[in-house]
Each structure stands twice: as structure tokens, then as C-alpha cells.
Design a protein that fits this description.
homodimer, Alpha-Beta Plaits, 18 strands, 38% helix, FAD-bd_PCMH-like_sf (chains A, B), flavoprotein (chains A, B), FAD (chains A, B), Oxid_FAD_bind_N (chains A, B), FAD-binding oxidoreductase (chains A, B)
């Protein structure tokens, strides 16, 4: 069963060993175990907010449904659930099972003046699901029952799905016939195709398979004005590309009911290789050279020295790690070393060719390969790392992640600015944060920068909320200050909306608003996401 | 000097040899040499249309300027120029030399109620430059003096140009420092960066360098509402991607003044290889398998049997071709053979690896390689083939090209439907057309389909115009009927605007119009391009 107030399945529990706990205590202090609110207490809060929706046969106003549909995985969502400070919840939940039901619900919501929030896997980390303030009733439309593979064209390598299908289900339906989409964000276990598309998601192997933008060939957007049908061409110069209006629309223009995706045959060969480099400058230079050499690697991920230390400390196996570190030191990778993970995917010939070329580049930068030992470990845990959030919480620590993308000349300064902003924000409250960073997606032009912050939750909701919002604000400002985008892969939602004008400009935001106003003149869709409170 | 009524430079003349002429005569009949209108006659027609623009120090109303700025390279443009049936010409021409002058002109045009047509290299083949009907004066803004390289970042591999820079000038400025954009459409000699971006151009080696969409990292659009500044991120999930509003906007939202492009180091190694395959099904299957194997080839171009025959016939060198054909026949490539051109570009190791993998695939489909003999020839003539239009005209033949993109299962049927539509349209007038086709850009999902039609011009403008419009209409309908996009690489302009609704839907077109109305409420920009006469 899925956890109602944390990440993932209740049968999966990661444990923090004593060494890992000691590592954290040393850095940010010992923490108290928090006292989480109970499910029954949370339900009582929902019951205290009577639904403002009139009855409809497809809409449930049951409290458990309303509770579960009102929160994603933003740390703000966690704090409200764990401390039992729910705030506003949605007024009702529908699980349409067909396009017809979906359109019926949109029409009904329009007619009664409700706001509709589309919800895929409820994995948003930027507040997409928080019901907006105001007098209008809120209907959350859960799309998880729209999960069928509608068509698979093996010649054009296209698969059409109902857009509510979640990662494992989607891959299972494709793999049964020898195909894969290859989209593996960390939210893979629950996130849906439609959510990926409308928030511009990026998977761990996007270097091979592309960001979701590159896979999305066409689809159907159910808007308040009717259905927008977007045909799947291999390419087109026929004016504006309407797919781009769906991508990143975050529910503001409608609900994606179907999507036609570019899929591939399952690769013949795949391996992940961990390579240590002596220090950050060497690692960054190697990552850049590898990206710019366009070798066709499926993944490049570079941990900075603190993340490398943290990874090794949290891995357990102190003795094995000790041996590894001695061997690395002997080969030039000592205290400041960094870990680069490479993904090699393709035909056997392609993997051989890219491995030879990558090896030559890495050698020039002092790289020491550990073969596939760490790679296999990374692969086994690729969707489990996020369960650490539960384990850390149980010991009194909160975790948040923030990310951006910048061009290569800004990468190092941005890493520093983001980590420093996090440190300073908590220092001002007399707290410390353990901050570490990796480059998760590497391009010829630049890189994403993905930072993790671990800090003590504090004694109560108010303390925790103040710490989180101070951190979030400081880091967002640092990102904008470095000229980075406010999100490389998480989206905008409500948490990032205040920072969007810095990159779109007032001109840009007003034009986006004009488009929303045209397609959704009554403001039915996902009000509050993406753009907040622009004067019309 | 540039030809005023045909393609290219007056010093370059391709000749049709007797054999080539015989080949055409046999297929579509002997033609009369046309009597072209003189420059002085055309000028007189301009003078008969007094400019409706008030004076402005940056605007020329000189007749020669107005004449040259009113036509692109659509066959319709040719017919009007060659027969001296100009129709409406622009009222004035400006050559802004800075963003400030550009913005000054936009403001002035707005204030006096003029329409502004941005003009890059005047190579549009879809009527972008034709002044719209109506009472408003028309100002054509020529952007060719905005041609400077403003910044080159070798670390992020980004080059920022003023957007009026033309192909050879852009490459010269980059190559001086060891870089290339790698964008080589057939219009390369004159077309500009801004034109490529705003019409979604695709170059011959887009398989390596990407369509212009993939190269365009950011820029500045000068709109009637002000400047839209689009920062150059490596990637972003921050809502709508404003670059996509510039791409394919065809002047309707403003003028692109600057563009930041993703550039690459000049490749270490490049070769073009010509391979014959026994017949169309084998060629198509090989092209698809090569595209779907994602080998990193820079080009894949497959001529159908008629284009293959035509290429060999027009090449001259009858004796050498005879030897070649005997050798090919002996190896299984006889009457129905097709020619596949491959581009291999990259480091020496990459080219070796992709060549080995390509060879293995081609062998399975009965491919016979001619090495780089035909490839070198293709390379030498890559921008000269278009000069054939002048040579054919001189002998009484008109040439038009039409193109689309469809998914693999539709490719063969689309080739047939397009060629048949062309044949039937002219047959209905008692004329014949020589029609041939190649796949110019090949994707895992499908392919572009690029067809050429040669037919007799006829005795006068009315005959020629009727033949051309009948052909254009029939082929456009065939494309739409096959579910293809109305353009893979030429754009929409005025010639394709009537067919846009078939792929965007009324919903889509109305939303595009709403965006135009927001950004350009007075309708200053490029009126008539992209969308025509939608009810507001």
C-alpha cells in the first residue's frame, strides 16, 4: 500500500545504519524523532471542511479520497501531513475511466464554476496539487485509471497510451512486446505519462532516450474549449508546434487524455560504470568533454566531493569502502575525489565503441574506473534512493532537493551559490544543513545542477515550516541570481511560480496568460499553477 | 550580382547538355524558350504603384528596392517576375543596422498603420514576401545588415549572432575560429539565420546537427509590445518554452533580432558515400533500419527510381554512367535501383564505427557501395542543384518542389500519391509532368518526402499560372489526404496557409490567432502569413 504521508510503498523500509547516522549527527547535530500525526487525525481535519461540490455520480467526496488527492511530494506537503496541519484540501475526487467521462467532468466543473486540478501519480515536488484559495469548489481529477496501451506501431516505433498510465505499468505493457520508452525519472514508480509531459520531465537516461519533450510525438488535450488533437509527425515546419503548448502547461490548458510516444526496441546491451576523478575541476572537465564529444552515452552523472563522501558513507560496508578508498588514493583520487557514473546503452558494437572513446577521454582527466561494481549498485537502487527521505524523517531529519540548469561556464559557481544559500538560510536560524550536489543531466551546452539539503526538522510545524521556506527562498534566489532556470526537471507548480518572471520576462508571462485566457476563459483549469496573480 | 528573376548569382550558369534535354523532351515534350520580361519593364510596373508610405529617413521607396524586396523563390514569384505580371509590390524597404533602428521602424509602422514584412535572404518558396492585399501600406524590413557575430562562448559552445546573417557569412565567422553551426539547407547561399529559425528550417545534415529548432538556444524577438528576451538554457522544465513561439512564427509575432545558437567544433572527419540498392522497397527498408539504429550518421537521403534515373541522366558523362550501370546490374541493381547517400561526420573513431555498422545493415538489403565517388560529386554540387531551375527555364521548363513528412508506414503511399496528384493535375490540362522524389530527412519515426515536378511553362502567364496552381493544389491535397504535414522544411507562408487547419485543427488555429492578437493587437506583423482570414 502506498504511504499516505511519505514516499512509496509501506512494505519498503530503508534503514539508516549507525555509521550513516553518526555521519549526519557530526555534520548537523543530533535530532529528535518526530511525532507524526495519525491518519485518523488527518481525516478529522478533512471532515471539518465540508465539500463545496454539488453531488455528481463520478465524484467522490469521501474524506480519505480528498485527503490523498490534495498532496504531492513537496517538502511542504510532507510537513503539512506529518504535523497534521493540512490546510485546504480538495472538495472532491473523480477517477474518469474514459475520455468521455473526462470531458463530462470538465463540462460539469465549468458549469458549476469549479476549479479542476489534474492529478497523475501525485509525485509533484512543487505544489501542483495544493487546492487554490478562494470560494470556488475544487475538483481533483485523478487520471490513474486511464492506463491502457491503445496502439503500438512497430514500424514507426510509436506507442499511444492513455495518459494516466504510471511508469512501471507503461514499461510492462511495452516490454511485453520488446519495446521501451526509456523514461526513468526518480518518480518512476508512481508518476504518470501525462504528468511527465505536462511538467517537462527528464529521466535518468535522457542522454539516450531524450527528455520527455523529444519522446512526445502527439496527443489529445481535453481543454475547456474542446479537444485539441495533435497529430504525430516525424518533424514539421508548419508553423507553431502545438505539442509545445502541452509540454510545461501544468494543467492550465486542459487535461492530456492520450499521448503518442516515440519508443525503441529494448537495448541489446546496457551497463553502468562508476569512475572516480581526482577532484571537482577534473570531474567537471571530463563530464563536459564527454558530453561535447557526443558519444551517445545514455547517462552522465557527476557527484561533487561532498555528495561522493555522502554516498560512500551512507552505503554501509565500511570495510569494503575503506579498501576502495585506499586503492583510489594510491591512484590519485584522495580527499577531494568525485564520482562520475556513466550509462552505456545500445547494440554491443555501439557500447564497445562508446566505451573505448569514453575511456580515452577519462584517462586524460585522471579517471579511475571501478568497472560495473558501483554501477550495478546504482542500478539496483535507482528508484530506492528516494525512500531515504522516510528513513531520515524517522530520525528527525528533513530532506529537500532543488535543481536548475546553467551553461558550462556557470556550473561551478552555481553549485557553490546554491549550497551556500542553503547553509546561510539555516545558519540565520541557528541550524546547519548538510548540502551536496550532483550534475544529473549533462548537455554539450551546460548541465543540470541538483542539490540535496538535509536539516533537522525541529520541534514543531512552525519551526520546520520556517526552516523549509527560508531554504527554498534562499536557494531559488541563488538560482535566479546565477542566471539559471528555476527548474530543469521538477516544473513550476506553485512553489516556483514566483520565480518564473525572472526567465520569461513580463512580456513572456503575459503572453502565456493570454493563451490560458483564450483556451480557458472561465479559469477552470489548475488555477494557481505556473502563473499566479498576474493582472489581466 | 544576384539574379532579380531567378536563383542565385549571375556569374553561375549551369548548362543542360543535349542528352539531358533529350531525356526531358522524351518525357514531357519539347518546350519553347520563354520570352522573359525585362528589368526595365518590371521597374515600370513598380513605378505605376506609387508608394503609400510617408517619408522616413530609414525607408527607401526606390523602385529597384521595392521590386527586389517583394518576391521570394516560390514558383509563383518566378512566374510573376518572368512574365512581368508583378501584382502588388511593397511600398517601401528599410535595412535597419541596429536593434534600435529595427525597433524605431516597428514603432513607426505601428503608428502609421502599416504592415511590416520581415525579409531575410528572400529565399522563401511559400510566398512569405508577397505584400498582402488591402489599403494599409506595406514596409518590407530587410535584415541582411544585421550580420555580426556578437559573442562566441567556446565552453558552452554557443554563438550569438545578429539574426540577419546569411549562411556563408555565418559559417565564415564561425570557421575563422574553428567552429560550425552545420546548418546547410539548399538555400544556404542566401538564407538568413532569422529566416531559418522563424520558418523551422532543416539542413542537409540535420541528422547530426539537428533541425534549426535544436540549435536555437535563445534570442531576442522584437515584438510590437516590446522585446521578448529568451535566455539560453541547456534545458528547462520551467513551463512553456518561449523559443517555440519564435520557431515557425513566420514574422507574425515580431522580428528576431538576435539568436544564440548551439555550435560545434569543425568535425575531424567527414565523408559522403553513395550506395545503390536493388529497388525502392529495399532502399526504404535500409533507410529506415539505418535511422532506427541511431548510428549518428549526419545524412541519409534516398532517391526513388525515377529520381535516381534522372540524377544519372542529368549528370552528363554518359560513357562513365554506362560503365557504372553495367557494374551495378551485375551486382543486382538494375532498372529499379535507388541511390542512397550517407553522410558520415565526426571524430575518426566515430566515423569508423558508424561506417562499419552501416555497412552491415546495407549488406543485408543488397546495397552496393560506390565509395565516395558520387558523394564527392554530391558535396561539390550541394548548393548548385538549385541553379538547374534557371537552366530548365531557359529551355521552357518550370520546376517546383513540394515536401511533407509522414510516419514510415505511410511513406511509400505518400510518394505515390504526391507524384500521381502532380501527373493528374497536369494531365487534366493536356500536359505532362516529370515527377521524382527523394527522402531528404530520415527519422526513426518516419521521413520527409521531397518531390520535384518539371513541366512545360506554356505560351503565356495565364497558362503557366494555371498549371502551377493546379499542381500545387492537387499535391497539397494529396499531402493532407495522406495525413502528412503541409511542410517538413519550407514553412507555411501564404501558399500553404489554406492547408494548415488540417493539422492544427480549428481549435489550434484559433489559439495561434489569439496569441498573435495579444502580441500584435494592431496586426502590424507579416499579415497574411501562416493564418489567413480567420474570424476573430
Amino acid at each position: 500500500m502506498r504511504r499516505w504521508n511519505g514516499w512509496g510503498d509501506t512494505t519498503i523500509d530503508l534503514e539508516l545504519n549507525a555509521a550513516a547516522l553518526g555521519f549526519l549527527t557530526e555534520r548537523i547535530g543530533a535530532a529528535q524523532d518526530p511525532a507524526d500525526a495519525l491518519w485518523s487525525e488527518a481525516l478529522a481535519q478533512v471532515q471539518a471542511q465540508p465539500s463545496r461540490l454539488p453531488p455528481h455520480p463520478l465524484v467522490s467526496i469521501e474524506s480519505a479520497e480528498r485527503l490523498q488527492a490534495s498532496f504531492g511530494q513537496s517538502l511542504g506537503d510532507w510537513l503539512r501531513l506529518r504535523f497534521g496541519q493540512l490546510g485546504r484540501v480538495t472538495d472532491g475526487v473523480a477517477w474518469p475511466e474514459s475520455r468521455e467521462e473526462l470531458r463530462e467532468l470538465l463540462g460539469w466543473a465549468s458549469a458549476i464554476g469549479a476549479v479542476v486540478i489534474p492529478c497523475g501519480g501525485a509525485t509533484s515536488v512543487v505544489g501542483h496539487l495544493t487546492p487554490p484559495d478562494g470560494d470556488r469548489p475544487v475538483l481533483t481529477m485523478r487520471l490513474g485509471r486511464l492506463r491502457r496501451l491503445l496502439a503500438l506501431d512497430p514500424v514507426a516505433q510509436l506507442a499511444t497510451f492513455q495518459a494516466g498510465v504510471a511508469g512501471p505499468d507503461l514499461e510492462a505493457q511495452l516490454r511485453a512486446q520488446g519495446w521501451t520508452l526509456g523514461h526513468y525519472p526518480q518518480s518512476f514508480e508512481y508518476a504518470t505519462l501525462g504528468g511527465w509531459i505536462t511538467t517537462r520531465s527528464s529521466g535518468q537516461q535522457s542522454a539516450r532516450y531524450g527528455r520527455i519533450e523529444a519522446m512526445f510525438a502527439g496527443g489529445r488535450l481535453e481543454t475547456p474549449r474542446g479537444t485539441l488533437d495533435i497529430p504525430a509527425f516525424p518533424a514539421s515546419a508548419a508553423g507553431p508546434d502545438l505539442r509545445e503548448w502541452v509540454l510545461g502547461s501544468e494543467g492550465r490548458l486542459g487535461v492530456l487524455s492520450e499521448a503518442t510516444m516515440r519508443v525503441q526496441r529494448l537495448p541489446e546491451c546496457e551497463r553502468f560504470v562508476g569512475v572516480f576523478l581526482p577532484d571537482w575541476p577534473a570531474g567537471e572537465a571530463a563530464a563536459r568533454e564527454l558530453a561535447q564529444a557526443r558519444l551517445g552515452l545514455s547517462m552522465l552523472r557527476l557527484a561533487n566531493p561532498i555528495e561522493t563522501v555522502t554516498t560512500l558513507a551512507l552505503a554501509g560496508h565500511a570495510r569494503a569502502i575503506g579498501w576502495l578508498e585506499r586503492a583510489l588514493r594510491w591512484r590519485g583520487c584522495g580527499a577531494g575525489k568525485v564520482l562520475l557514473m556513466l550509462g552505456l546503452t545500445g547494440s554491443a558494437a555501439q557500447v564497445r565503441a562508446m566505451q573505448a572513446q569514453a575511456r580515452a577521454i577519462l584517462r586524460r582527466h585522471g579517471g579511475v574506473s571501478t568497472g560495473t561494481v558501483l554501477g550495478r549498485r546504482w542500478q539496483a537502487n535507482r528508484f530506492r534512493g528516494v525512500y531515504l527521505r522516510n528513513a531520515l524523517w524517522a530520525h528527525g531529519y528533513a530532506v529537500d532537493t532543488m535543481e536548475t540548469a546553467v551553461n558550462w561556464p556557470q556550473v561551478s559557481a552555481t553549485v557553490d551559490a546554491i549550497e551556500q544559500a542553503g547553509h546561510q538560510a539555516l545558519q540565520a536560524m541557528g541550524e546547519r544543513t548538510h548540502a551536496y550536489t550532483h550534475l544529473s543531466h549533462v548537455y554539450p551546452q551546460g548541465s543540470s545542477v541538483y542539490s540535496t539539503f538535509v536539516f533537522r526538522i525541529g520541534p514543531d510545524f512552525d519551526h520546520a515550516w520556517a526552516r523549509w521556506t527560508a531554504l527554498k527562498r534562499a536557494v531559488s534566489r541563488a538560482i535566479v541570481g546565477q542566471g539559471g532556470t528555476i527548474s530543469h526537471q521538477h516544473g513550476v507548480g506553485k512553489d516556483h511560480a514566483p520565480y518564473l518572471a525572472a526567465e520569461k520576462g513580463e512580456q513572456g508571462l503575459q503572453a502565456v496568460q493570454a493563451l490560458i485566457d483564450h483556451i480557458d476563459p472561465q479559469g477552470v483549469m489548475a488555477s494557481g499553477n505556473l502563473i499566479q496573480g498576474l493582472p489581466r
